[in-house]
Amino acid sequence: MSTSQKGVSRVTASLIGAVGVVLWATETMLVTLTTSIPPLQTVALAFMFSAAMSPAVWFLTGSHPLEAFRQPLRVWVLTVGSLVGYHSCIYYATQQAPPAAAALLQSTTPLMIVIGSAFLPGERLRWWHVVGALLGFVGVTLLVETGGEGASAGSSIFYLALIGVAAGLWGLYSVVARTLPDVPSSALGVFYAACAVVTFAAHLTLETWVPPQPTEWLAVAGLGIFPMGLAIYFWDFGLKRGDIQALGAFSYVEPFIGAVLVALFTGAALSLSLVWSGLLVVTGAVIASAGLWRKTRATHAIAKPSSLSHGWLQSVNDIGSQAELHHVTNLVIERLMSIGRDYDDPRAYDREMKELLLALESIVRIWDELQAASGDDADPKPACQLVA
After folding, report:
1. How many CB atoms lie within 10 A of CB 283?
2. How far apart are CA 199 and CA 86, in angstroms?
3. How much is the pTM?
4. Cα(137)–Cα(104) distance, rounded to whole angstroms?
5. Cα(99)–Cα(163) distance, rounded to whole angstroms?
6. Which of 292, 350, 296 is nearest to 14 (CA)?
7. What is the spatial distance between Cα 55 and Cα 122, in angstroms, rounded to a whole number?
8. Cβ neighbourhood burial of 285 (10 Å; 0-12, 13-18, 19+)
9. Per-residue CA distances from 136 to 140, 231, 285 (Å)
10. Residue 45: CA atoms inside 13 Å, Cβ hemisphere, count?
11. One-letter-per-residue 3-state SS of the chain
């Protein structure tokens, strides 16, 4: 990941991930325009358009085009397997599975993300995460259709099983991706290309090619650029740098926004249950992200003293007397204690902690030099410099 990407704050990264969720909401509407195309063919063509965006992403992020080839095999298996498996199962099953049960199964993914993230290093599951996720789940259930089920009992089990596999794959990918912060999101472009190849091979084996009409080409391109392209770029970045629990709960807004878009573009009436669903989902997302905003306020509250606003390493480098050494030592220790009291998210302080530890190492070295000096009043030499 580029230097600029690493410097993005936790709040900003979470907001970027939230934009990805909103972009996902276009998938429901776009898929309705591709129903005459075989599902694997749709997925393969969409990933082709996703991969075509790679040069622009590399240019904007400053990432190396070959970064994906530097990743271990497990990253390739996780990413390509999850993307291909999720989209193939969803596109194949949603047109045949009972809509009520399918919607409920898909809505378990956010819960998997919120609960599963509690087992990740540096993460803690708080009451607001659970309450927000449950409110979102209740909101999604209001979107469930209670009418007739379109598939027979036997086929329903099969199609629902595929949707369950898809939900599990996406939940697994989202949680495990958090443990791979050094894998740049920009590497997804190459993974998209691999997904296109794998899915197209499956299409040739299992399906018959259907030439898309012009409107279908536009819909497939939209799928590749928005929900299967930019949305996953943003989601992956948010997962690795933002608040994963808040994003997990916020992802409940995707089916709500998708239902609104379908209603608007198909001329269907916006029902009262849709409004109540939106209120519950949005309320749940706000509650689940409470820790994110509290974290922001706490970070501002324990900001660096103004006397050290130019950086900890430079402050140590500028020490020219024993009095200054005492002063800087106290400030460094106080800052370490302040961070320790607000250390729920270690990644928020990664860079500063590294500087503080290096500064502390230099301070100890200066004290050793003083003790080795002939007199107690000897001033430490500013020649003991650190490279930032």
Report:
1. 15
2. 11
3. 0.69
4. 8
5. 11
6. 292
7. 34
8. buried
9. 6, 20, 7
10. 22
11. CCHHHHCCCHHHHHHHHHHHHHHHCHHHHHHCCCCCCCHHHHHHHHHHHHHHCHHHHHHHHCCCCCHHHHCCHHHHHHHHHHHHHHHHHHHHHCCCCCHHHHHHHHCHHHHHHHHHHHHCCCCCCCHHHHHHHHHHHHHHHCCCCCCCCCCCHHHHHHHHHHHHHHHHHHHHHHHHHCCCCCCCHHHHHHHHHHHHHHHHHHHHHHCCCCCCCHHHHHHHHHHHHHHHHHHHHHHHHHHHHCCHHHHHHHCCHHHHHHHHHHHHHHCCCCCHHHHHHHHHHHHHHHHHCHHHHHHHHHHHHCCCCHHHCCCHHHHHHCCCCHHHHHHHHHHHHHHHHHHHCCCCCHHHHHHHHHHHHHHHHHHHHHHHHHHHCCCCCCCCCCCCCCCC
Mean pLDDT per block of 10 residues along the chain (388 residues) reads 57 89 86 90 97 92 88 94 94 74 71 80 73 77 54 67 87 90 91 97 96 95 95 93 82 74 64 69 71 50 40 66 74 78 65 80 79 53 42
Residue type present at position 231 = A
Tokens of 178: 């958090």
Cα separation, 114 vs 238, in Å, equals 14
Q: Which residue has the tokens 């694997």?
A: 40
Single-letter code of the amino acid located at 142:
L
Token pair of 299 as six digits: 């970070």
In whole angstroms, give the CA distance from residue 388 to residue 385: 9
